[in-house]
Each structure stands twice: as C-alpha cells, then as structure tokens.
Amino acid sequence: MKGSFPEGRYVAGDVNTIIKDLKVATGKWIWIVGGGGLVTSLMASELIDDYWIQLAPVFLGSGKRLFPEGDYEQRVTFVEATQMGEMVELHYQKKQMTKKK
Prior knowledge:
By secondary structure, this protein is α+β, with helices and mostly antiparallel strands. It has helices at residues 15-25, 36-44, and strands at 3-5, 8-10, 50-55, 76-84, 87-94. 20% of the residues lie in helices and 29% in strands. The chain has two helices and five strands. Strands 3-5-4 form a three-stranded antiparallel β-sheet, with no helix packed on it. A two-stranded antiparallel sheet has the order 1-2.
C-alpha cells in the first residue's frame, strides 16, 4: 500500500534501508507497524531504540512466540505499562550493549 496521511506516510522497499535513511534525515520519531518478521529484521540491524508492545489477550490453548527465533538478542529496560481497556501496552527502551565477539 502506498500513500500518505498527515502524521506520516506509507513506504515500500528494503525496510532496513528505509529506516536508516529516515533516522538520518528526520531526527524525529519513526513509527513502525508490523509483525515479528518485520521487527526481527530491524532488531538484527539494531535499528529500534524503543518498543511499544501491545498485548490483546486471546487464549488459544497453546503459545505463540512474539518474535521468531533468530540471532538478534537485545536487552531492554522497562519504561511503563499502560492499560487500555482489555489491552496492555508495554514500553521498553533498548539498552546499549557491546557486541559479542
């Protein structure tokens, strides 16, 4: 989907390149909406500084991972939790870590 709206715009292409370019050009918040596959790529490239994870519980009888398995380990610091009806939004910030050698 392409287009724009007052608060932002839709884009298509390599997500890592788009985010790197936006981080340099805008100096403002970049809001990314997507599932674990999209986020995993950005996590592996260390392009996410803050996470807002919205949980809307649906009990399915078995668990589903929030993110697929991969080599993108990160540590985060809890900032806050906000309740919105039955949903909870968790805010975390990425901790700065030294790379494993």
